[in-house]
Design brief:
Strands 4-3-6-1-7 form a five-stranded antiparallel beta sheet. The chain is of the alpha+beta class and 553 residues long. The protein has 20 helices and eleven strands. Helix 5 packs antiparallel against helix 17. It is 57% helix and 10% strand. A hairpin with a 2-residue loop joins strand 3 and strand 4.
């Protein structure tokens, strides 16, 4: 018994590691339990830490601060790298409208939290923690705590109010979606506003029937069309070949065209009749179409290719092959000459088997190499993030310079490296499981320490009149802005119900609610909207929490 008591007394390094490991293990196990289809996931580590702290288990304060800060930095940096590739593309087309709605939701909830801080007995720090719990955003809580610590103020109160309001923050968004579905949705709201996946890459076969392009080469035809497309195969007099820009097309030739779906009608009008064969099915066996031309998916693993444009490789001239499309993180991209390749891209190569083999050797195609972690890039990114977070930024109206801190600096650097690291030939690729591991490890360490810190006073606060007020105000911050912005998106901005749900879940950083939205919508529009809104919303909430405290404290 003395052995086990010493193992968890928190007085030596080994006992600190053992206690934090126990909290994380129990919390993650409990997080897998589902109640009516809803689980808290890694957040259960937070509540397990609270229970442990309540019963007197503790870790040396110095060790606790180090582990908490290290976990936070690791989590937000990995999160930034994950969302970085899609961060700036989210501002294109429909993404602008969805992000604007997400920012409206953030502004409404933040305004409510600031307004509640003027109620008798309430303070701004506890309202920032309440806001973080109501919107299930632990990085925003960390940013609030970092800012309060920089100002020399107590940083434990936000953790208490966040812990009290977090459970209803998870449930509140799901309840809001259910209310919207029951009272707001009309039959027209259940349909996509236009053709779904309108910008996705599309494959079609066309028969040349336009006399205006008879005897013209593909380069000239491309100039006529003013749209980007790739011809991966051409059938002439029953023989198939891999065309080049100089290939001449004649009447009744068949072309296998890859383009954006929105451009297919334009190409059909230019080339001729489109055949009814569905080439976009997942079960198409490309190698059974003909015997002389094969199609293979080749993985870019050679570091020297990272950051180079597809056109600069001259693959067509060197190997006599065509690249029809590129798959990156599950997204199919059109293989245009200006497309910049990244490590881990899957390149679909069409050509004769020997030529395809040579192209594969040039691109790498050594999948095992991708399993090797590129640790230097991770540590350089962490260091850069800490430096950026420590830079003082003087802003008008603030009594002290703003610092992005341990939460803001690493997430900004992570986003930039994830989006533009290839330009500096920084290898940022990691498998999805590796990135998920880093995020889960960092978040688990952070939440376990946070729970231990809040545990001794949590139940006293939660069961008091102040705790009841936190619950009521937090539920209002979760439910009311979500319902109002959801109604505005569908009625005023004409966004369909499924996309609205995904936008709300992304702005509220609530993957549990996203699961519910996907189930009731029967499609993937909520997930698409979620990934469009989530990166900017996460970044804005982290920075906004600091700015609010710096302005109003």
């Amino acid at each position: 018994m003395d052995f086990f008591n010493g193992l968890f007394d928190g007085k030596v390094d080994i006992s600190s590691i053992a206690l934090l490991s126990l909290i994380c293990a129990v919390g993650l196990a409990l997080g897998k339990l589902r109640i009516r289809g809803v689980s808290l996931g890694v957040t259960c580590v937070f509540f397990t830490g609270i229970v442990a702290g309540h019963f007197g288990l503790a870790v040396d304060p110095t060790i606790l601060d180090f582990v908490q800060n290290f976990g936070l930095v690791l989590f937000v940096y990995a999160l930034g790298v994950q969302v970085g590739p899609g961060f700036f593309s989210a501002f294109r087309s429909n993404g602008i409208r969805l992000n604007a709605l997400g920012l409206l939701l953030i502004a409404a909830g933040t305004a409510m939290a600031v307004a509640f801080s003027f109620l008798p007995g309430m303070s701004l720090p506890e309202m920032m923690g309440l806001l973080s719990g109501a919107v299930t955003n632990t990085p925003a809580l960390a940013a609030s705590q970092q800012t309060l610590a920089q100002m020399g103020l107590d940083s434990t109160t936000p953790a208490l109010s966040c812990a009290v309001t977090y459970p209803l923050g998870v449930v509140g968004v799901i309840l809001a979606i259910a209310v919207m579905r029951r009272f707001f949705v009309r039959p027209a709201d259940m349909a996509a506003p236009q053709t779904e996946h309108v910008n996705n890459t599309f494959i079609a076969s066309m028969v040349v029937a336009n006399p205006g392009i008879f005897g013209r080469d593909l380069r000239r035809i491309s100039e006529y069309s003013h749209v980007q497309f790739v011809v991966s195969r051409i059938w002439h007099d029953g023989h198939v070949s891999v065309p080049s820009p100089d290939t001449i097309v004649e009447k009744d030739d068949r072309l296998l065209v890859v383009a954006s779906r929105r451009d297919i009608d334009t190409l059909e009008a230019l080339i001729g009749r489109r055949e009814q064969t569905d080439w976009n099915r997942s079960d198409v066996d490309w190698n059974s179409i003909d015997s002389s031309v094969v199609s293979r998916s080749i993985v870019v693993t050679r570091p020297s290719i990272n950051g180079r444009s597809l056109g600069s490789l001259h693959l067509r001239n060197s190997y006599g092959i065509n690249i029809s499309r590129i798959v990156r993180s599950g997204v199919i991209l059109l293989a245009t000459p200006d497309l910049v390749l990244q490590l881990g891209d899957r390149v679909v190569v069409v050509g004769e088997a020997p030529a395809v083999d040579k192209a594969a050797a040039m691109l790498g195609n050594a999948v095992r190499e991708l399993n090797e972690p590129h640790l230097p890039a991770i540590f350089v990114g962490l260091l850069a993030g800490l430096i950026v977070g420590a830079i003082p930024l003087a802003m008008p109206g603030m009594s002290a310079p703003l610092k992005l801190g341990l939460a803001g600096g690493p997430i900004i650097v992570g986003i930039l490296i994830g989006a533009f690291g290839y330009r500096l030939h920084i290898i940022t690729y990691s498998t999805e499981s590796v990135n998920l591991m880093l995020r889960a490890l960092g978040l688990s360490l952070y939440l376990s320490c946070l729970g231990l810190s809040a545990g001794p006073t949590f139940f006293e606060a939660a069961l008091s009149g102040r705790g009841a007020m936190w619950v009521a105000l937090g539920f209002a911050v979760t439910l009311l802005p979500t319902l109002l912005v959801g109604w505005y998106a569908m009625r005023r901005r004409k966004v369909d119900f499924a996309t609205t749900c995904g936008m709300l879940c992304g702005a509220m950083a609530n993957p549990m609610a996203l699961t519910y939205a996907n189930e009731i919508s029967g499609g993937d529009r909520p997930s698409v909207a979620y990934t469009t809104v989530y990166p900017l919303s996460m970044f804005i909430r982290v920075v906004l929490a600091q700015v609010i405290l710096m302005i109003f404290m």
